[in-house]
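TOPIC: backbone geometry
CONTENTS: sequence, structure tokens:
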Amino acid sequence: MKDTPMPEPLRRAVHQLVAEAVMSCQEVLRYTEPDQAHSWKRMTLYRATDTADTMNMAAMLIAAYCQRTGMSLGTLESYLQTRHQRTRAAGPRESDRQELAGMLGDPAPGMDDHEARLGYAWGQQHAKGALKPEDDPQQLFTEACLHGLRAKLCDDVDSLDGYLPPPMAAMARKVADALEVPQPAPV
């Protein structure tokens, strides 16, 4: 079977969903800032799950197309990585609680569960990374791009100085300044 490009309507729908997910990701970051102490728990969970749901919609549209064009169920399940799927309705697992314990420096409990031990170790790695004075430049750039994009689209670039650390605000401002607001195409 010959490979064909993604059909244009599907491509546009996927682009729209990814753009929505990016905006939700930016809001997750926004609600982690100190000035959001009153609502960070509620809003980070709302926006993180909105992002997951939006990306799930994109994956299911693509999967429906693959199924329509004759992809086998086994291949489709493999590409969808269904073995890794987990429902949020089940709530946090023991490995999630252990990852948090490792992050927050709680003592490691005696654990027989291999997944929980891995979670604790991941948490310790996150905590170690948070203590380093230098941050990952790619992560900083990604965050600055998300904050700058949101500020530009909302025409609120000055707000960046109100909630971001000065180096991040400066980088996000540069990103926002470099962006042009899309104009409607002439008719």
The chain has a mean pLDDT of 87. Helices lie at 8-30, 40-68, 73-80, 94-104, 114-131, 137-153, 160-163, 166-178. The chain is about 65% helix and 0% strand. The longest helix spans residues 40-68.
